[in-house]
Write a structure and sequence with these properties.
This protein is α+β, with helices and mostly antiparallel strands and 345 residues long. Helices cover 41% and strands 14% of the residues. The protein has helices at residues 3-14, 26-36, 41-54, 58-63, 66-73, 80-95, 102-106, 113-124, 133-143, 152-165, 171-185, 203-207, 267-270, 334-343, and strands at residues 223-233, 237-242, 253-254, 256-258, 283-294, 298-308, 319-323.
Length: 345
């Protein structure tokens, strides 16, 4: 039995039952693919279900406001995905319907090679192979390929190989089979080699290189930053601002944020210029400290303070006041929601 036939047979017996696989609606499949980027299925599935309940069609999503979409996305991280999803929905509406070719799907905002191949093959059975982390792992181990997967040469080599293995007329089954095989069988750690249907032909297993593949080139060192968030409580209100364009958290809201030059800092001095009640020091309470939040190229450590102000502070122009009970109406980064949870415990 060929490699592709083995994968498809395995998939038909062991593939995951997922709600977006019960439809050929390209909109539902597309939403699932965007949500599942950088997200575990058990975490992303409830988000997909909520999105589909709230915006059952691409027209409905296109008509929503960005704030509404970001609010529904809150907690998933990588918020550019949500902004791109919203803008792409508007593109689809302007096209008059969901595109049906790989090139046209690829032209949508936030849709890369993998996502276009997944949508095209699953919704329309287009003959385009997907290449994601699971596929890299399965192919590199089975064929014994040590070319780094995060290099241009590696991406081209694996893409060509995956496309060459794609069986005629069965792109959807093969692509989904490769994804699930990597997720369930040929896992990053403790792969089930003893029960693998490809055990006789796997080069990595034969050569004892399973744990060494796939290969990745080392990236740049991750930067660490220390942030200080100050939740201001004044006359039943609190102050927030919206992150600006070009920011990783663009369009999201947060309370007063400071970035001290050193881990040891004097918050009263830092707030001195903002405090309108200079006759008495700010009433400050440390809620929590050193909350860790990992981003792709940064690790953030955040302290969260409560400032109960006696007079209205002088804040930068981009901050505005809202009622405290309305805080949940604003989409915030996951780090800020963690800190809010600490405030309310």
């Amino acid at each position: 039995m060929s490699f592709a036939s083995t994968i498809i047979c395995w998939f038909r017996e062991n593939g995951r039952e997922l709600p977006w696989r019960e439809t050929h609606d390209p909109y539902a499949i597309w939403v699932s693919e965007i949500i599942m980027q950088q997200t575990r299925i058990d975490q992303g599935r409830p988000y997909w279900e909520r999105f589909m309940r709230r915006w059952a069609t691409v027209d409905a999503l296109a008509a929503a406001s960005e704030d509404e979409v970001l609010r529904q996305w809150q907690g998933l991280g990588y918020y550019s995905r949500a902004r791109n999803l919203h803008q792409a929905a508007q593109q689809v509406v302007n096209m008059g319907g969901f595109p049906r070719t790989y090139e046209a799907i690829r032209s949508l905002k936030g849709v890369g090679d993998y996502t276009a191949a997944a949508i095209g093959s699953i919704a329309f059975n287009l003959p385009v192979a997907v290449v994601d982390g699971n596929v890299y792992r399965v192919l590199s181990r089975h064929f014994g390929i040590s070319t780094p997967i995060n290099t241009a040469a590696g991406k081209k080599e694996f893409s060509v190989l995956a496309q060459s293995l794609l069986p005629t007329g069965e792109a959807a089954a093969f692509n989904q089979g490769m994804m699930d095989f990597g997720a369930l069988q040929c896992t990053p750690a403790a792969p089930r080699c003893d029960l693998c249907p490809l055990i006789e032909t796997c080069i990595a297993l034969r050569e004892g290189r399973v744990t060494q593949l796939p290969v990745k080139e080392r990236k740049l060192k991750v930067k660490e930053r220390h942030l200080v968030y100050v939740y201001i409580r004044y006359n039943g209100q609190t102050a927030i601002h919206r992150r600006t364009a070009g920011d990783i958290w663009q369009g999201l809201y947060e309370p007063l944020i400071l970035e001290p030059e050193a881990e040891e800092y004097d918050l009263r001095d830092m707030l001195g210029a903002l405090d309108n009640a200079s006759s008495c020091p700010p009433d400050l309470l440390l809620i929590t400290s050193n909350v860790k939040h990992v981003l792709t190229h940064q690790v953030l450590y955040a302290d969260f303070w409560l400032w109960t102000a006696n007079a209205c502070p002088h804040l930068p122009d981009d901050y505005f006041w809202i009622r405290e009970e309305d805080v949940d109406h604003y989409a915030v980064p996951r780090l800020v929601s963690k800190l809010f949870e600490k405030l309310n415990t």
